[in-house]
Write a structure and sequence with these properties.
The structure holds two protein chains of two kinds. By secondary structure, chain A is an alpha+beta fold. Chain A contains nine helices and seven strands. Classes of the chains: A alpha+beta, B mainly alpha.
Chain lengths: 240, 130
């Protein structure tokens, strides 16, 4: 017997006064939500708008709210949702461009504020910098540097929803990576931004929503907590 | 209904337990604030003399209020045990295992302390009613 699911997709602008369009999609083995969206678009409604690029969970462009949780459409298997109805909505806290595609402008505005670019401590060095295997950078960086800037953490964070000036988890994690790096010289500037009481790390309420939704499994709250603790220990910031 | 209570429970029970803990802390905090106002209001009766204060206190000696005290104990214990969890997280302890921390410290330890206090209170309330 053919198995079908109902795909409910949010529409922006509303179609015939309806905020959602529904499509009955035949379920296939290992079908992802992105596959289902493509099937609905190609076979039922060509006006359906969504974003995607790599289809293998590397680019982060297909992040949407699936059954009320921010996830990547290309890595979320319909079968794993264990639901007859799959509701796809745009990520919250962003401006909707079309249907479930949003503008990530607020996310990247905060990303820029965190000064993500590497600033070499010794720009004229002719030899490669050596980083000890027991350094904090070597120990912590591998688990923190896989961010694909999908914006799911920013969408899941309730603080960014209330305070658009808040840096947000991804930007703070990026700053944390730079702070850890003994080759980087931009630490003081970043710490001033991170230490701001109204939009810095102190806004985080450790709800762990960002960590819960990160498709790369980065413990973003851990980065924020580590920065908070480091800010309380002047002079002992991230010894390399 | 498209989004059922079962869906919400499935979503928040484990994956978003940090959000649940945060909500618990806010709700119990507001309940304790309301209790604080009630407490101050009752104590303020002392300014009207011992007789007025005794009348106010007599209201709270009923079995019904003893049962409400059990509820108050639950609110206090939940707020305190979750506060311990938050302190541990802020100290960098168990950040990577915060879900376990929530279920063990906030729910598990909190329930044990609550039962240790609630059972004697309940027996006392029953005795009062009998």
């Amino acid at each position: 017997m053919e198995c079908q699911v109902t795909l409910r997709v949010a529409r922006h602008p509303a179609q015939d006064g309806k905020r959602f369009s529904e499509y009955r999609v035949s379920l296939e083995e290992r079908m992802t939500v992105l596959d289902a969206l493509f099937r609905a678009q190609r076979e039922m409604d060509g006006s359906l708008g969504f974003r995607c690029s790599c289809r293998v969970g590397m680019c982060g462009s297909c992040a949407v709210n699936i059954n009320r949780i921010p996830r990547l459409a290309c890595t979320t298997l319909v079968r794993n949702l264990k639901s007859d109805v799959v509701t796809v909505e745009p990520l919250p806290h962003y401006q909707v461009v079309k249907d479930v595609a949003v503008s990530l402008a607020p996310f990247f505005e905060q990303w820029r504020r965190a000064r993500p670019a590497f600033r070499p401590r010794n720009a004229g060095a002719s030899t490669l910098a050596l980083i000890g295997k027991d350094s904090r950078f070597r120990q912590l960086a591998p688990a923190k540097r896989d961010c694909i800037t999908c914006g799911a953490c920013y969408a899941a964070c309730s603080i960014t929803g209330m305070n658009p000036r808040y840096l947000g988890p991804a930007a703070i994690n990026k700053a944390f990576l730079r702070l850890l790096d003994p080759r980087d010289a931009g630490g003081e500037d970043r710490l001033k931004i991170l230490d701001r009481s109204l939009d810095g790390v102190w806004r985080c309420h450790t709800q762990f929503n960002c960590t819960a939704v990160c498709p790369r499994g980065i413990d973003l709250t851990d980065s924020i907590v580590r920065i908070k603790r480091a800010l309380l220990r002047p002079g002992r910031l991230f010894p390399s | 209904m498209r989004y059922s209570l079962r869906d919400a429970l499935r979503k928040y029970r484990w994956q978003f337990s940090g959000m649940v803990a945060w909500t618990i802390q806010r709700v119990t905090g507001l309940l304790l604030l309301a209790y604080l106002f009630l407490h101050v209001h009752t104590v303020s009766r002392l300014s009207q003399g011992p007789a007025a204060f005794d009348r106010a206190m007599a209201t709270f000696h009923s079995a019904f209020f003893k049962l409400l005290e059990i509820g108050l104990l639950g609110v206090v214990v939940l707020h305190a045990s979750n506060g311990i969890r938050i302190t541990l997280v802020d100290l960098g302890i168990g950040v990577g295992r915060q879900r376990h921390l929530f279920w063990i410290v906030t729910v598990g330890a909190g329930l044990l302390v609550f039962l240790a206090g609630a059972i004697p209170l309940f027996l006392f309330a029953i005795g009062k009613a009998g």
